[in-house]
Design goal:
The model has no long low-confidence stretch (mean pLDDT 82). The strands form 2 sheets. The protein has a 5-stranded mixed beta sheet with strand order 3-2-1-4-8, with helices on both faces. Strands 5, 6, 7 and 9 form a 4-stranded mixed beta sheet that branches. It is built from 9 helices and 9 strands. By secondary structure, it is α/β, with parallel strands linked by helices. Helix 2 links the parallel strand 1 and strand 2. It has a single domain, classed as Spore Coat Polysaccharide Biosynthesis Protein SpsA, Chain A, CATH 3.90.550.10.
């Protein structure tokens, strides 16, 4: 449990009346979207405004999102007629963001169950380290990376790019640089890292705050949908076998 001083410190990091903008893009994968957002709703106590953009799903994802929108759990719901690509849609979502800070995350992730919650802790880290233009929660594993790759004591693990594992920015900065939508998926995230680096800013993962990337043999795409993950980085049985703490999502190694 955090001390009273720690609780006070975290509460001072955010104006809870203003909130923080959270954004995710959906494209099929209804079951993963359901797990992702139900976890978000249950574990995030800091005030936020959730924007969801659907890229033309036809597997029941849109109906699921519409129900949450009607319940007030989603603030902005944008339903597109087809798949316009991840980076283009992220830039579209940017026009709807008004908070000082924003977080972009993929819909196959689980946030940790922490107190104070993950969102306010991540915000505190970004404010504490203004040399970082973006930080993201540390996933339990990265494809092709060893489990112990980042063993250390620093609060943030610097890297040239981070994926959308709850990546946090100052909204004004992200609106300036944006994603370069001539690229696709991970290449665009690398390009974004290059732009931030050219401005003298760093990117990195939180060392001690984990999220869980829901790897699996079936990525929940229909067979006729081209998938970067399926074609380039197919799931491995070893990822499926990694166990994590149910609340913190830290790997149990």
């Amino acid at each position: 449990m955090p001390s009273e001083e720690e609780e006070k410190y975290y509460q001072e990091q955010v104006n809870v009346d203003e909130g923080i903008d959270l954004v995710t893009v959906t494209y099929f994968r209804k079951d993963l979207t359901k797990q992702c957002l139900e976890r978000l709703f249950g574990c995030t106590k800091t005030s936020y405004r959730l924007t969801v953009v659907d890229n033309g799903s036809t597997d029941g994802t849109r109906e699921l999102l519409m129900n949450w929108y009607k319940e007030g759990l989603i603030a902005n719901l944008i339903l597109l007629d087809r798949n316009y690509g991840l980076e283009y849609v992220r830039n579209t979502a940017l026009r709807h963001l008004h908070s000082e800070y924003c977080v972009f995350f993929d819909n196959d992730l689980l946030c940790p169950d922490l107190k104070p919650d993950w969102l306010i802790q991540e915000l505190a880290l970004l404010k504490k380290h203004p040399e970082y233009g973006c930080i993201a929660l540390r996933p339990q594993i990265l494809v092709g990376a060893r489990n112990n790759l980042w063993d250390g004591v620093s609060e943030i693990i610097e890297n040239n790019h981070v994926g959308a594992t709850f990546m946090m920015f100052k909204t004004s900065l992200l609106k300036e640089v944006k994603w370069d939508d001539q690229f696709t998926n991970r290449v665009a995230d690398w390009r974004l890292g290059d732009i931030l680096k050219s401005r003298g800013l760093k990117m990195g993962w939180t060392q001690f705050i984990y999220c869980n990337h829901l790897f699996g043999k079936n990525w929940s795409y229909p067979e006729d949908v081209p998938s970067f993950h399926r074609e380039i980085w197919p799931p491995s049985e070893s990822y499926d076998n990694i166990k994590v703490d149910e609340k913190t999502l830290k790997p149990l190694i």
